[in-house]
Write a structure and sequence with these properties.
Length: 236
Amino acid sequence: MELIRPSLVGTKPTLNRVCLITEALLRRNMNGSIVLFGPPGAGKGTQANRIVNLTSKPQVSTGDMLRAAISDGSNLGVEAKSFMEAGELVPDDVILGLISERLKMEDAKDGVLFDGFPRTIAQAEELDKIAIVSAVVSIEVPDDSIVTRIVGRRMDPETGEIFHVNFNPAPETIIHRLIQRKDDNEITVRNRLKAYHEQTSPLALWYEEKGILVKVNGEQSIEEVGDEIISKLSEL
Ligand code: AP5
């Protein structure tokens, strides 16, 4: 199937027929939630916007929720901070408390786009009890590329947009306000990768056995990764 360009997404007057067909297929196939799955720095956050625009499902990023809790100084943030700074997973009960509250919100009734959740078999089992998962998109990137991506990542605190110093540079006008995440350093990312391989990657097989896992080559351009995700979700 021919693919839509990101520039067409959400700009209704310019939507062509192919775009409408792809959107319709996606909506038909994705009645429940979608999970973006992959190692740290695979491109989950980068790809989330495009899927949100196509499906109208809200993005639910446990990493963003935890960072918000830390900056609010809440008890939850205090509990999560040391785990995150060490590159370890936050305990399941904390994460599941956050998710069950979030899924009670009105905008979650037709499913959400999970970004960074679930990350353990226990989280996935609990999710199964409270929501329907229609698809799990595994963005596959080897460890060697991950460190370069993570160390060069910069974020715009005003818009949440994600950039990379080499692979996706920000416009000159906003460079002064970009920030780097505290856990985006080489030592922590190696721990995050260890946690991913030990605790999270077994989930791929778990979802594959359910027939809802799609694997995407994450080592293409950002646009090509997005095209492959949309194409594979439309076919599921
Ligand atoms: P979280 O915030 O979820 O971080 P993560 O999973 O480590 O993922 P990242 O946000 O680092 O990467 P991404 O895949 O979104 O990549 P991005 O698009 O930014 O979690 C942080 C911490 O919170 C965890 O370590 C843990 O402590 C805790 N936590 C969160 N959820 C939890 C849970 N469920 N259970 C327990 N603990 C939890 O891209 C990365 C960079 O690469 C960017 O610079 C981007 O521009 C660039 N890039 C993207 N795509 C490409 C491409 N195709 N080519 C070249 N560069 C690219």
